[in-house]
Write a structure and sequence with these properties.
By secondary structure, this protein is α+β, with helices and mostly antiparallel strands. It has 5 domains: 2-82, Alpha-Beta Plaits, CATH 3.30.70; 92-184, membrane protein fhac (Ubiquitin-like (UB roll)); 191-250, no CATH class; 260-266 and 339-392, no CATH class; 269-334, no CATH class. It is built from 9 helices and 23 strands. It has helices at residues 2-10, 22-32, 56-66, 78-84, 89-105, 122-131, 145-155, 293-297, 341-360; strands at residues 12-18, 37-41, 46-52, 69-76, 111-115, 159-167, 170-177, 191-195, 199-208, 210-211, 218-219, 224-227, 229-231, 242-244, 248-264, 266-272, 277-284, 287-291, 303-314, 318-338, 365-376, 379-391, 393-397. The strands form 6 sheets. The protein has a 5-stranded antiparallel β-sheet, with helices on one face. The longest helix has 20 residues, at 341-360.
Length: 401
Amino acid sequence: MCQKLVSLLRGNVRARVSSAFPERVLNVCAARGIPLRDPRFLGAEELAFSVDRRDWRRLKAACADLGAQAHIERVAGVPFFFGRLRRRYALLAGAALCAALLIVSACFIWDFQVEGNESVPREKILRVLAENGVRRGTFAYAVRQREVRNRALLDLPELAWLTVNVRGCRATVIVRERVPKPEIVNEAAPTNVIARRDALVTDVRALDGEARVLKGATVHKGQLLISGVVETRGVEHPVVGTRYLAGKGEVYGRTWYELSTKIPLYGELKRPTGEESHAYAVLWGENRVKFRIKEASNLSTECDKIIRRKQWTLPGGLATPVTWVTETYLPYDTLRVERTRESAEELGRAALESYLASQLGAGGELVSARVASAVKGDWLLVTLSAECAEQIGEAVPIMTG
């Protein structure tokens, strides 16, 4: 492989020699130090082999001394390639211009890579950087990292740290998100525990404060369950009459829900027409040049749009400012499909149970459920009646002022 590469760099000539004694050509070449590769006898008086470009004249002189005739079958290699371009001035000028453009474009930013973001969207970070002067087409050596960082962090309070590293045509944005400050809870603040909703109490666990309900009692929303105001008059504390405590505890109860939702008795189904249209565009930095967009814009029906972008890169992963965009349009017709009552009722049940689970929270449990439905025009009214077990206590502050 290495020898073949060296041969292409030097230039390779495939020669055919006609002689009454072809073996003498081999002997003369060996005597004069002309290296031959891949020799093959094509007949009794013909011989083919490969030589380097620089040895062709010596081979031709040796054949002339023997009265043999040497012809060129084919040539290959870098010297012959550039030799064919020697008189094509426009092509050489275009190649030189392309090389100059690539060298100049390597001084600008054409590609961005964001690292370290989890909750902050990549698009938001790039938009803030663009507002501060770092965008596609920005001169790479004009980016002042300290100024960009200080200004961008003011517009991105979710970030604690940001830096922009420019290497070639690519800018790598490395961020560190800010850790949210934990909520400070005053454990000593006086509070009451009240009921979040109507329930039948099944268990009372008063950790601090005084329980005001018993197991088996029926409570209403907003009713006091555990009081943080405790009367302490007596022999042990004759002076202190009332103490304010941080009412803490858990009160469990059985609750009942009745939820309703409407589900349509019909649905829409996409049916592809089988047609396919394409539109192409070239992005040069922030500029866009469209091709064949007329064919895609004359679609009479609704369609799905698929966009594929491919940025052109040079060997070694060097990004260029050119991005090829392919837009594929897939037209479809919309069909109205009837939905059975059973399937509509199942959809409604799943939606209501999901909403109920969000209301119950982590400690809630669905004990039993019953689903009823009624047809109203093109809609099905689905009603979920559920019995649940959950923690109904909610702490509220006591106004002592």
